[in-house]
Amino acid sequence: MTSTATAYAVPFHVDRSKAPRVHRLVNVAGEPVLGIRVTLLGCGLLVPVATNRLDPGDALSVSVIASELTQNSIAVVRWFRPTREEFLWRFSF
């Protein structure tokens, strides 16, 4: 079986300039991302994050509340491309 599908690069850059409490997801892709949801796995609380659309160059802030962030916490990002394909990606703190 051969596939001609081109790899799809993650459309986000994580701006950690305000870490450890705030991380910004910047859309560095050439297309909008849709239906974004971010959840937290591990210690701490994540201020609920959801938006219907993030255009190229725009950013979404992710705020984490915890007495002390651990290396074991992971943010899971779910989104759709304009083609309605669903993707998941995770990043750690």
- The count of β-strands is 8
How far the N terminus sits from the C terminus, by CA atoms, comes to 38 Å
Shape: globular
Give the biggest sheet.
Answer: 4 strands, antiparallel
Structure, described:
This protein is mainly beta and 93 residues long. 0% of the residues lie in helices and 52% in strands. It contains no helices and eight strands. It has a four-stranded antiparallel sheet, with no helix packed on it. It is globular, with a radius of gyration of 14 Å. The model has no long low-confidence stretch (mean pLDDT 89).
Summarize the SSE layout with pairings.
Blueprint: E1 12-15, E2 22-27, E3 33-41, E4 45-46, E5 49-54, E6 59-65, E7 74-80, E8 86-92
Provide the descriptors you would attach to this structure in a database record.
single chain, 93 residues, mainly beta, Immunoglobulin-like, globular
Summarize the structure.
This protein has no helices and eight strands. It is globular.
